[in-house]
């Protein structure tokens, strides 16, 4: 059996070895949900960057600029981080430069990994089917919120672990925690996640529809893959 473990926050990532592993980056609200949605709507490439200035520089070079901080669009950007923005016809075949509060930072911190894949509830079954035949150890890397653990990314980790029990054995207590969370919530993740901090934050900004959308399962059969500084569909 291969092994699976979970890093619950970017603040802990230095405790994990990434070499020889597939790292699945998850930021349910909303970065990885938006990335998956973009590729499902024929975005060509996404360049994740950690700095607003870099994102604006890429805009000047012809990219669509998508920038979010604290859940809101950054001044000067073409769009924020709503998955609904990633459905636009105008993005078909285009390259999006993307910077977000947590999700793009997690990708930067995972660069040592043998392979970086993007996970969300929206593509979780398709991703699990791919991982089952990978014969590789996996680290699920939760983007969290500014270094803190969050519920939605941890619940995704538990859900993915449950889907991989036939091929991957749990390697650490974070994974056991994530799995038991999911087993508790399995019937209804939206209800279980209703109190989560970022859903509350986004709801106060009247973007409840993003939350409802990001909690849907198995909507898209795409797997964004980070290669040579860009995300492309695997
Ligand atoms: C994040 O990076 O944590 C999210 O993208 C924040 C958001 O979209 O609200």
Please tell me about this protein's structure.
The chain is α/β, with parallel strands linked by helices and 234 residues long. The protein has a single domain (2-233), classed as putative 2-phosphosulfolactate phosphatase (Alpha-Beta Complex), CATH 3.90.1560. The protein is built from nine helices and eleven strands. The protein has helices at residues 31-40, 52-60, 103-109, 124-132, 151-163, 173-185, 189-193, 197-204, 208-214, and strands at 2-7, 21-26, 45-48, 64-69, 72-73, 95-99, 115-119, 137-142, 168-170, 224-227, 230-233. It has a seven-stranded mixed β-sheet, with helices on both faces. A four-stranded mixed β-sheet has the order 3-6-4-5. Strand 4 (64-69) and strand 5 form a beta hairpin. Helix 5 (151-163) packs across helix 6. The protein is globular, with a radius of gyration of 16 Å. The two termini are 24 Å apart. 50% of the residues are buried. The mean pLDDT is 96. D-malate (MLT) is lined by residues 27, 29-31, 68, 71, 81, 100-103, 143.
